[in-house]
Design brief:
By secondary structure, the chain is of the alpha/beta class. The chain has 32 helices and 24 strands. An eight-stranded mixed beta sheet has the order 13-22-21-14-15-18-17-16. Strands 3-2-1-4-5-6 form a six-stranded parallel beta sheet. A six-stranded mixed beta sheet has the order 7-8-9-10-12-11, with helices on both faces. It is elongated, with a radius of gyration of 36 Å.
């Protein structure tokens, strides 16, 4: 009897290899040992006709004369089929793309070599022998190759894998089905597990290489561990990761790596496991979790090969000195030259950084000068202020200072520093670092450029991370895959830059943002920080596009689940620009905040109670909450009154009195009539300035006793003045006497 088998925990490459091998050995019985991956189980459930599988208990292993093994050569990985090895006359055939180890079995047929997937080996044989395969079989075989090569992105991918996939596509492989399985959304269980892994993650350095190790215990078997670890590696852009899961009976190791220096296949062999250089696993019994971790670190120290870190000299350089003179006011341009010369006096290396540099290159006005100093930033700020006759305020904990110079010019000065996050969404811990490390801690590549101010290299643009290229291509790109996990507020900033400059996110950045949203990372963000980012976006000169993007990505739901961008709200966002153009100067004089009007637009469909709770939840100040609540509760009834054809000036005054200017402009927007706008404008520009000449003292002289009556008299006198009933001081006196007789 011929028997065909693969390894325990079969993935798609293992299953596809079995199907392909069955085409070569059509009479062989096929056994799938143990329990395959969850996705493989689902695939088999939907496609049971692809291969006839036997259960291990249905097979008499003593009668096996030829054993065909695919995707492994290790006896301990083939389950009950290893019983067949007791037959001394057993013929062994192996098809496996994994690197050979000392524990490998030997066979009369043993085909391997450098391939990204075992399926590729068997597809080459099928092609050579001209064996017919159906489109359904071609789809599974292609899926096996796509999975084990990471869609042809893993370093182990070879030209043979690409050729095999091309052959299978020609045979009818369904790429849509493959895409569905390769890009599966995280399940609720996986999201929960992923969050747990994120919390427990710690990183160590072995021979200069950062390695993530996660150790956790579970009372039950954890499904989807391998898939979740793989997604975690991608989300955090980890070079290598080892997850140690301890249950009552055993400890599982799941490992992933992107780099040659950490060959996880060889490392897991020390625990009786195996796999590829980029993906491997092992199962250990009879050891404590802490002992497995200790042994793992020992193995890593022996197996991880050191790498040489790239030098900081490997960067893009360009001189932008002429832009400093052309795009900046002469006062600031001269100041920057002075800063460079003062830095030279004490051998400080000083750079312009961040948004100032970004906007300088874009030709956008931005005079908020931010400097990074290689060395002690506070000492430089103190020396700079002393030389220019200014003063400083400093924050020793962060190595930062603000130098206030004559004329009110402020310069932010920071020590070049690096930062790390103890947990997702937490505030960073800061330490001194190099210029490259300082720039790397920033949010997007377009904000990572620096301009040298020292005299000999004045105007030199330093660009480690491709910011200049992304600026020209109008792209918002994160520096690393963990960016949104570490600081979810970067999601708001990415969208803000998109809206402000008309940029777009690169595909990877948007994918990472969506992955972070699936992890519900906003739950870990303080309400204070979320509020600040909302206000910043809504304060943009034209936030409409950013708001639409927030809605498309589902971020508005994180603010309140009932916020929807209906057609009415979209129209409001379009029309509000006209309101600002007509009332902008007045709004500014009144100290009004444009963001409040945009916020009122977004929450207009919420109930008053929901608005109040939202203001409380977002930690708005008392004054901010008052204006937002006023806008929500006053809108409808005020607009109804303002639309009346006949309206006394005094009634208009009483209707609008006490409403914040932001609410008044919101009323203009929602009134949708020229009459409403005209009446609000009259109130703001004329009616509020109307004054009566009668005072409390004059009422006393007229013989009236001080008390509540004073307020009533003065109030009705003002209304009479507004309605034109009284126009002079004498007519005011007559109005009082006629309408308020003395006791």
């Amino acid at each position: 009897m011929d028997l065909m088998v693969t390894h325990i925990g079969a993935d798609f490459d293992a299953l596809a290899s079995l199907v392909a091998a069955r085409k070569i050995y059509p009479k062989a019985q096929v056994v799938l040992p143990g329990s395959p991956d969850k996705d493989v189980r689902e695939y088999l459930y939907k496609n049971p006709h692809l291969i006839d599988l036997r259960r291990e208990k249905e097979v008499d292993f003593e009668k096996v004369k030829r054993l065909i093994v695919v995707d492994t050569r290790l006896a301990k990985r083939i389950g009950e089929a290893k019983k067949a090895l007791n037959n001394r006359k057993l013929i062994l055939h192996f098809y496996d793309h994994h690197p050979r180890t000392k524990d490998d079995l030997a066979g009369t047929v043993d085909i391997g070599g450098r391939y990204g997937a075992t399926t590729t080996i068997l597809v080459e044989l099928i092609k050579k022998r001209r064996i017919r395969i159906s489109p359904e079989e071609a789809t599974l075989l292609a899926l096996g190759i796509y999975e084990d090569t990471g869609s042809f992105t893993f370093p182990s991918t070879t030209a043979a894998d690409l050729k095999a996939a091309s052959f299978l596509v020609a045979k009818g492989a369904n790429l849509n089905m493959i895409s569905d399985f390769m890009r599966r959304e995280l399940t609720k269980t996986q999201v929960k597990l992923l969050n747990k892994l994120l919390r427990l993650e710690k990183r160590i350095k072995i021979n200069g290489i950062e390695i993530a190790i996660i150790k956790l215990k579970s009372s039950d078997y954890v499904t989807d561990l391998a898939a979740t670890v793989h997604r975690l590696r991608d989300i955090e852009n980890l070079e290598s990761i080892f997850v140690l899961l301890g249950t009552k009976e055993r400890i599982r190791i799941v490992a992933r790596s992107r780099i040659k220096a950490v060959n996880v296949g060889k490392i897991t062999q020390a625990f009786g496991g195996g796999g590829h250089a980029t993906a491997a696993s092992a199962t250990i019994r009879g050891m404590e979790l802490r002992d497995v971790e200790k042994k793992l670190i020992e193995v890593l120290n022996n197996k991880v090969t050191p790498e040489i870190a790239p030098e900081e000299s490997l960067m893009f350089r360009k001189n932008v000195g002429p832009l400093l003179n052309r795009n900046l006011p002469s006062k600031i341009a001269r100041l920057l030259v002075k800063v460079g010369k003062i830095a030279d006096e004490k051998n400080f290396r000083v750079y312009l950084v961040g948004g100032f540099v970004r906007d300088l290159l874009l030709g956008v006005e931005n005079f908020d000068v931010d400097l990074v100093v290689k060395g002690d930033g506070i000492s430089f700020a103190r020396y700079l202020a002393g030389r220019l006759g200014g003063k400083i305020t400093s924050h020793k904990r962060f190595g930062t200072a603000v130098a206030t110079l004559p004329g009110g010019i402020k310069i932010d000065v920071a020590t070049a520093r690096k930062e790390f996050y103890a947990s997702p969404a937490a505030l960073p811990t800061v330490e001194k670092g190099s210029l490259r490390e300082d720039l790397y801690r920033r949010d997007f590549t377009i904000n990572t450029m620096a301009v040298r101010l020292n005299s000999k290299r004045y105007g030199e643009l330093v660009d480690f991370f491709g910011g200049w290229k992304d600026l020209k291509e109008r792209k918002v790109r994160v520096l690393h895959n963990r960016s949104f996990i570490e600081d979810p507020t970067r999601m708001f900033r990415a969208i803000r830059f998109q809206g402000r400059y008309g940029f777009s996110m690169d595909r990877n950045t948007e994918r990472l943002l969506r992955d972070a949203l699936k992890l519900k990372i906003f739950r870990r963000l303080s309400k204070q920080r979320m509020k600040e980012e909302i206000i910043t976006i809504l304060s943009e000169p034209e936030p409409k596009n950013a708001i639409l993007r927030l809605y498309q990505l589902g971020i508005l739901k994180s603010i309140h689940p009932k916020i929807r961008l209906s057609q009415e709200i979209r129209k409001d966002l379009q029309m509000v620009r006209g309101i600002f153009s007509r009332f902008g100067p007045l709004l500014k004089r009144e100290g009004g905040k444009g963001w409040i009007i945009h916020f009122l637009i977004l929450v207009q469909r919420l109930s008053l109670l929901e608005v109040k709770n939202l203001c409380k939840n977002l930690r708005f100040s008392r004054e901010q909450s008052r204006k937002i609540v006023k806008g929500s509760e006053s809108l409808s009834k005020v607009i109804r009154k303002l639309k009346r054809s006949e309206l006394k000036p005094s009634f208009l005054y009483r209707t609008l009195k006490g409403l914040p200017v932001e609410v008044l402009l919101f009323i203009v927007l929602k009134g949708r009539r020229r009459l409403v706008e005209k009446r609000v404008y009259q109130y703001l520009t004329r009616m509020r300035k109307v004054r009566i000449r009668t005072t409390g003292d004059k009422l006393k002289k007229m013989g009236y006793k001080q008390g509540p009556l004073f307020k009533k008299i003065l109030q009705e006198l003002l209304w009479a003045r507004l309605d034109g009933i009284v126009k002079s001081q004498s007519s005011e006196r007559k109005f009082v006497i006629d309408n308020f007789p003395k006791d």
